[in-house]
Design goal:
Layout: H1 21-26, H2 33-39, H3 80-93, E1 97-101, H4 104-112, E2 120-124, H5 129-140, E3 145-149, H6 154-164, E4 168-172, H7 184-193, E5 197-201, E6 219-223, E7 237-241, H8 244-257, H9 263-273, H10 276-296, E8 300-304, H11 314-320, E9 327-332, H12 336-345, E10 350-351, E11 361-363, H13 375-381, E12 387-391, H14 397-428
Parallel strand pairs: 2-3, 2-4, 4-5, 5-6, 10-11
Antiparallel strand pairs: 1-7, 6-7, 8-9, 9-12, 11-12
Helix pairs in contact: 2-3, 3-9, 6-7, 10-14, 12-14
Bound molecules: pyridoxal-5'-phosphate.
């Protein structure tokens, strides 16, 4: 693990947040996450009493005078709007502080700056394709050493942590796209025994449904592009640290390499976070309706959803999550023909990458989100060509159910026709 940068970390340390001082003054009570999400920065404007915090787009801030800097000087280092978002996400995750980054991938990249060249990263073999690509290529450049592991098998993963003694254990739970669940507490405990840092990518659930720091992780990473912003109009990321020391290191590196997020993006994401709890509840209740449909339809051979009692990670998910979320993956019977017909027949699911927005999306991981993985790596991770992933939106549940029902019926018709067509070919041949 690399040392704390020797240069002055305080020079560009985060400025005192403008924050919800008023709220805190009137009531020092610890509030629920839903209240924090709604209230961060509300009525913090001292100048005009604006209820919603103002957006500070300025790239720079004037000094009071010679050698007399105010809390902010330059937006790459610190910005009031971005700091409010960091404060909100940190509180939601129960951290000591958060760094807001320009994307989920820059959040991941930022964390790798805590490593020294020889340090070993143990990462999930089925992590998000972009993380896989970044870690693999950093390893090729000898910037770190890398080993992949199936973290959904707790005993084997614990053994692997003890055997390989990594400096960093990277968890993504539930994983993308197969929704495998890793036991954060058990794996964090094993990591602690060998002095390893644990990072958990909490993008798929958001802090509304899972808080990895309370389960033993040291750092939480988010693509805020997804549920935290929730409206598919910002690409952003966040790194939440459990301790002030880690937060300071991450803040230093974020400023140094220039990956901090833009103020306008922060403003929109903070607005999105205010409705996080109600959105996530609706995503999940719609997802449950679709899981019921998928589980009983003849066009589907397998459904991956941690809320199903048959899911291998169900017990762990029940224990460490407050809900099962709005993501579902499933396998269609047949092949590319069925997949094409299913995707073509959907009317309410946009065929697009990303997830966690209010609108429903469908993706084909093998050719879209996970195309960065080789065919062999996909096979190893269990990503089949017939795998389909749904990000269930918050539209009316009945409308979503009839849309998916119609598309599944269309896919099933193709499968039933296929033997007839091959018979016909055999006869005419
Ligand atoms: C689990 C997970 N982590 C990280 C990322 C990267 O985030 P971004 O696209 O915001 O860079 C993604 C993107 O899909 C993701 O699904």
């Amino acid at each position: 693990m690399s040392q704390q940068p020797a240069e002055p970390t305080t020079a560009n340390a985060p400025a005192t947040p403008i924050s919800t001082l008023k709220d805190r003054q009137t009531s020092p009570k610890r509030r629920s996450a839903a209240t924090t999400a709604v209230r961060t920065g509300i009525e913090s404007d001292q100048e005009h009493g604006a209820v919603v915090p103002p957006l500070y787009l300025s790239s720079n801030f004037a000094f009071n005078g010679f050698d007399d800097k105010r809390p902010y000087d330059y937006t790459r280092s610190g910005n009031p709007t971005r700091d409010l978002l960091g404060e909100a996400i940190s509180e939601l995750e129960g951290g000591a502080g958060a760094v807001i980054t320009s994307s989920g991938m820059s959040a991941v990249y930022l964390v790798t700056h805590l490593l020294a060249a020889d340090d070993l990263v143990l990462a999930p073999h089925d992590c998000y394709g972009g993380c896989y690509r970044l870690l693999e290529n950093l390893a090729k450049q000898n910037k770190l050493r890398l080993k992949f592991c199936d973290f959904s098998d707790t005993d084997a993963a614990r053994e692997e942590i003890r055997r390989s003694r990594p400096q960093l254990v990277w968890l993504e739970t539930p994983s993308n796209p197969l929704l495998r669940v890793s036991d954060i507490s058990a794996l964090s405990e094993a990591a602690r025994e060998v002095n390893s840092l644990v990072v958990a990518d909490n993008t798929f659930l958001s802090p509304a449904l899972q808080q990895p720091l309370a389960l033993g992780a040291d750092i939480v990473v988010h693509s805020t592009t997804k549920y935290l912003n929730g409206h598919s109009d910002v690409v952003g990321g966040a790194v939440v640290a459990k301790t002030p020391e880690l937060h300071e290191q991450l803040t230093w590196w974020a400023n140094c390499i220039g990956v901090t997020g833009a103020p306008f993006d922060s403003f929109l994401t903070l607005r999105g976070i205010r409705t996080l709890k109600v959105r996530v509840a609706q995503h999940e209740s719609n997802a449950r309706r679709l899981v019921d449909l998928l589980s009983s339809h003849g066009a589907v051979s397998r459904v991956y959803y941690p809320g199903l009692t048959s899911h291998p990670g169900h017990a762990v998910a029940r224990r460490q999550q407050n809900g099962f979320g709005g993501m579902i993956s499933f396998e269609l019977r047949g092949g590319v023909g069925e997949v094409t017909e299913f995707l073509r027949s959907l009317e309410l699911f946009s065929l697009a990458e990303s997830l966690g927005g209010v609108e429903s999306l469908v993706a084909h991981p093998a050719t879209m989100t996970h195309a960065a993985m080789s065919e062999a790596a996909q096979r190893e991770a269990g990503i089949e060509p017939t795998l389909v992933r749904l990000s269930v939106g918050i539209e009316d549940a009945d409308d979503l159910v009839s849309d998916v029902q119609a598309a599944l019926d269309a896919a099933l018709e193709i499968s039933l026709d296929a033997p007839l067509q091959s018979e016909a070919r055999a006869v005419s041949g």
